[in-house]
Amino acid sequence: VQLVESGGGSVQAGGSLKLTCLASGNPIRSHCVGWFRQVPGKEREGVASIDMDGRTTYLDSLKGRFTISKDNAKNTVYLQMNSLKFEDTGLYYCAAGDPANVWGQGTQVTVS
Q1: CA-CA distance, 51 to 82, in Å (whole number)?
Q2: Do strands 76-81 and 66-71 pair parallel, antiparallel, or not at all (unpaired)?
Q3: Quick one: how far is CA 45 from the chain centroid?
Q4: Rounded to an integer, what distance in angstroms lies between the CA atom of residue 53 and that of residue 30?
Q5: What is the pLDDT of residue 100?
Q6: Distance from C-alpha of 97 to C-alpha of 28, rounded to nearest angstrom
C-alpha cells in the first residue's frame, strides 16, 4: 500500500482542518491506519487510529477535538481536527499496519 496525505495548511487557533490519507495499491479495509504527528521539539506521537473493523483510538489529550474516519469505497482515511491549538502545529503523517510500517510523506499543519 502507498499513502498520500493532503489537507494540511495554515489556520488560526480555534479553526478546523480535515486531513486526507489516500491509499493505493491495497485496500485500506485490510489495514489498520493511523495518524501521527511530529511536533517541533518533541518525538513523533500517535494521534488516532482506525482498525479494519472501524474501531478507533485516540491520544487522550485530543479526544473530543479530533475524529478519525474512513471511507473504504474511496480507499481514504480522514482526520477531522477542530478547535485547533498552537501546540497542534506539526507535520502529520498517516501510516498503515500494526505496528505502522508504511508511511506517507506528511502534510504540514500550522496553527497561529
Answers
A1: 22
A2: antiparallel
A3: 11
A4: 9
A5: 86
A6: 10
Which of left, alpha, beta for 14 (phi over 0: left; psi -120 to 50: alpha)? left
Of the candidates 28, 107, 25, which has an alpha carbon nearest to the alpha carbon of residue 74? 28
Distance CA 74, CA 106 (A): 19
Read off the pLDDT of residues 71-96 as tens digits, 9 standing for 90 and up: 999 999 999 999 999 999 999 999 99
Share of the chain above pLDDT 70, in %: 100
Please name which of 30, 60, 38, 31 lies closest in space to residue 48, comparing C-alpha atoms. 60
3-class SS letters over 18-70: EEEEEEECCCHHHCCEEEEEECCCCCCEEEEEECCCCCEEECHHHECCEEEEE
Q: Please, which residues have CB within 8 angstroms of residue 52's CB and are 6 or more apart in sequence? A: 29, 30, 31, 32
What is the per-residue pLDDT for 101?
A: 87
